[in-house]
Amino acid sequence: MVEGVCFVETKKEAFLFLHLSYIQEMRQNFIEVKEITYKETLSPRRQWLRPFLTESQCVYPGDLHPDSFHLGAFSGDKLVGIASFFKEGHEALQGQNPFRLRQMASAPSFRNKGVGRQLILVAKKMLKERQSTLLWCHARQEAFGFYEKMGFLYYGPLFHVPQIGPHKIMYLLLKTS
Asked: What are 171's strand-pairing partners?
């Protein structure tokens, strides 16, 4: 047998081989979102979002707050997406138990494949359990379309974040029931 080649003798073996290949491909494409520690977000934050910073510079004051939580998206055992959620209000936005989304990113090879969507969907469930009615963020200009599709609205003018680029405040009103 040649490596990487499977010889089949019957239609049943061919079907089984194709079926197993399909299952393996589905497992590779399946994204599981679960809570992770802030430390697990540091390397991806630096690599995917802030390559001009050191890992220790990617720690935020809210990372260790007891109300904060961090989510990781996994493809198998590989971390392919991250997002951090801090209990933090915005002076112009009204909401019960407001949370701020920070540092959401996905691995370059997993961008535009639904990783961010899965992170937001899981976060919405967790925020509902916490009786939160507001999620907001500083959205990068290139991500406006993503946030719009997720139901976020704009607030205020475009502003510039040094070394990163144009942003807008975006927010999502959450239902608690």
From this structure: 136, 153
Residue with tokens 């061919």: 14
Say how far apart CA 62 and CA 89 lie, in whole Å. Answer: 12
Beta bridge partners of 95: none
Indicate if the alpha-carbon torsion angle 51, 57, 61, 65 is positive or negative: positive
pTM summary value: 0.81
Instruction: Please give the chain's pLDDT, 177 residues, in tens.
Output: 344 445 556 655 555 555 555 554 444 568 999 999 999 999 999 999 888 888 988 899 899 999 999 999 999 999 999 999 999 999 999 999 999 999 999 999 999 999 999 999 999 999 999 999 999 999 999 999 999 999 999 999 999 999 889 999 999 999 877
Fold classification of 32-173 (topology level): Aminopeptidase (3.40.630)
- Domain layout of the chain by residue ranges: 1-30, 32-173
Strands 69-75 and 134-140: unpaired
- φ and ψ at residue 114, rounded to 5 degrees: 90, 5
Task: Say which residues have a Cβ less than 8 Å from residue 5's Cβ, sequence separation at least 6.
Answer: none
